[in-house]
Write a structure and sequence with these properties.
- The structure is a single chain.
- With 152 residues, the protein is mainly beta.
- It has one domain (5-151): Nucleoside Triphosphate Pyrophosphohydrolase (Alpha-Beta Complex), CATH 3.90.79.
- It is 12% helix and 38% strand.
- The strands form two sheets. It has a four-stranded mixed sheet. Strands 2-7-6 form a three-stranded antiparallel sheet, with no helix packed on it.
- It is globular, with a radius of gyration of 15 Å.
């Protein structure tokens, strides 16, 4: 039997007061992504969330952070590699409609330029790595459930 590798990930659904969701295009990505990354040794998922959002977007202040769900997602079947993904929602006050952020964390994405922008979560479509799986759990701008939630 093959050894299964489990990698802990923190995933951030970051929204602003309009209810729009922060996403990015980056080098080597086949679809839209959200800020996310691997937990470092001794780091909690919540700590990783703050670090990853800062590294990948430049945003240093998150408000109303809440844990939405945790799942196990299979990245690769052979040899088995699974991600234990911790999804969070946070809000930010961000007036820019889009910006470019260059990653400077010293890791494998160091120097990569991410093109960040906002989208309507109800028309998000599919993200890379199935990162859109829980967009339906986000509150709408008026505090009501999103249309996707109402149909679940």
């Amino acid at each position: 039997m093959e050894q299964v590798t489990h990698v802990q990930k923190a995933c951030a659904y970051v929204t602003r007061s309009t209810g729009e969701l922060l996403v990015f295009d980056g080098p080597g990505h086949d679809a839209l992504q959200i800020p996310k990354g691997t937990l470092e040794p001794g780091e909690s998922p919540r700590e990783a969330l703050f670090r990853e959002v800062l590294e990948e977007t430049g945003l240093g202040t998150l408000n109303g952070v809440s844990h939405l769900t945790t799942d196990v997602w299979t990245r690769r079947r052979s040899p088995p590699k699974r991600y234990v993904r911790h999804f969070f929602h946070a809000t930010v006050h961000e007036p820019r409609d889009g910006w470019t952020h260059v990653v400077t964390d010293g890791g494998e994405e160091d120097g990569a330029a991410f093109e960040l922008f906002w989208i309507d979560p109800s028309s998000a479509g599919e993200f890379a790595l199935d990162l859109d799986a829980y967009v339906h759990l986000l509150p709408s701008a008026d505090g009501a459930e999103t249309a996707a939630t109402a149909s679940d």
